[in-house]
Design a protein that fits this description.
By secondary structure, this protein is mainly β. It has a single domain, classed as Immunoglobulin-like (Sandwich). Helix content is 0%, strand content 66%. Strands 1, 3, 4, 7, 8 and 9 form a 6-stranded antiparallel β-sheet that branches. The chain is flat and about 50 Å long. The two termini are 14 Å apart.
Length: 97
């Protein structure tokens, strides 16, 4: 379980086979959140202020959620068959079910 402040970001790296994720809010409501591909990048600027972007890692699956209320949030990740792959259970981490 994650204790989160209002507008605190919850982000998890997901298994590659993840297709969707849900967040259970402190009130018990469940919200679907997108799972997306992300690649870390480096930004560099030359002396004219022009930006150059270069990749700095592999592509990963990730899910993010911004809390609108403070409290304990739980995140669940599912594969294409609807089986749970990951469930958040403690602050800052997750484990396979």
């Amino acid at each position: 379980m994650l204790k989160t402040k209002v507008y605190g970001r919850i982000a998890f790296e997901m298994p590659w086979e993840a297709k969707r994720a849900d967040v259970k809010l402190p009130c018990g409501t469940i919200e679907n959140i997108p799972v997306f591909d992300r690649q870390k990048v480096n930004y560099a600027y030359d002396h004219h202020g022009y930006e150059t972007v270069s990749k700095s890692g592999d592509i990963i699956k990730e899910a993010r959620f911004t809390a609108r209320v403070a409290g304990v949030h739980e995140m669940f990740c599912y594969d294409k068959n609807g089986d749970v792959l990951i469930a958040s259970r403690h602050i800052g981490g997750c484990h396979k079910m």
